[in-house]
Amino acid sequence: MEVTEGFLVYTRSRNKVVPVEISPQAKQLVKAAVQEMVVVTNENIFPKATKSKKRCATCTHRNVCPQ
Fold it and tell me: What's the pTM?
C-alpha cells in the first residue's frame, strides 16, 4: 500500500492538524533530513545558542546542551 497523505499535528498550537501530501520528492527530503539528524546526534553537533533563554525550556537539547 502506498502512502500519499499524512498529517502534521502542532501540539503547541492547540493540536492544530494540517494535512500534507506525501510525494516521492517529499519522501526524499525526509530521508535527507533524517540522515542529517543522525549525523547531528552521533557527532554531538548542537544548534547555535539562542538569545532568549526562555526557548531553552522547551528545547530537545536542553539536557545535553553545552551552553
Answer: 0.54
